Amino acid sequence: MDFTFTEEQQAAVEAAQAVFADVAPDGVPSPALTPGAVAEDFDRPLWAKLAASDLLSLVLAEEHGGAGLDAIALCLVLREAAKVLARVPLLEHCATAMAVQAHGSPELAAALLPGAGRGSLVLTAAAHGRSGHDPAELAVTARREGPLWILDGVQTAVPWAHGADWIAVPAHAGEGEAVLALVPRTAEGLTLAGQVSTSGERLAELALDGVRVPATHLIDTADAWERLHRLLTTGTCALALGLGEQVLTMTSQYTGRREQFGFPVATFQAVAVQAADRYIDLRAMEATLWQAAWRLDAATGGAGGPLPVAGDVAVAKIWASEGVRRVVQTAQHLHGGFGADTDYPLHRYHAWAKQLELQLGPAAAHEEALGDLLATHALA
Q1: Which residues, 6+ apart, have CB-to-CB distance to 380 below 8 Å?
Q2: What residues form DSSP beta bridges with 205?
Q3: pTM for this one?
């Protein structure tokens, strides 16, 4: 088995590192000192740099102006983005574009994908439902009236919605599989109410009251929404991994400089053991992430496994949620009071880590889903 990344995937990492090299994690006010959102919009200059480096079209086919790469390449780029707390809708944008490319009508693909690849159109997805605990597709109903679909319902915690041009909204048509509607942010009957994430970023409660969507803008392909949801979850794991790796690096650098009794605290056995435990967490997060990303790509080619791909995604999210929480908690402990100083960026990473831990379900929710899969799929 060859576990190395391809030249194209490695080139994507190098391009991402070049783009994110000058990004400062503390480029916006601290969420600890800001009563509302830390900013009204995402980082537009950074978004333009990502577009100019062809990273927004990374996962699009050549016919849509892209490089034709896969979920693994996207996760590699997301990993780099999280190291600097990049405030851009990279995950939601690219995952939605992949769903449109794979399942959307030719008219929808032509309307969205060229602009998405150039960054002139921004896409996001509503994946949290009404409460964040129930399936997102149950929060919105879709009924057909002639050539149109009518959407009614509420989705909460929609990331980057205020700055997006199109929002992917899962809905339930009453029978069969969930459908996925692509709705312009300015659609009549769609309203956005402000919410704030744990990381201080601006979210939106999306209310749909008789929103009319052409049939060409609705995807009713079986499993389309589930595949998009799995990709969003796996991408969240990639963000958690990148964040955790950066936090452990910060901890290593600090404990290597901080001295007590004339010695760096990194040389103390208790400190070294805690750091080693967190390194093991990160390696487990990495292994389960690449397994899930590989299964997402392999599933489109018919490759199977002992469990459905949802099982690998659940395992990855369990490790990501638990692992990133332990990493930032240990980092705060080993930094002492310095870690809570709002002039130092560690507290920002802690806030983002808590958001990623809970985003698209905490570990307990995915443990329950994994248990259901194990109960219904006999393992050889």
Answers
A1: 306
A2: 193
A3: 0.96
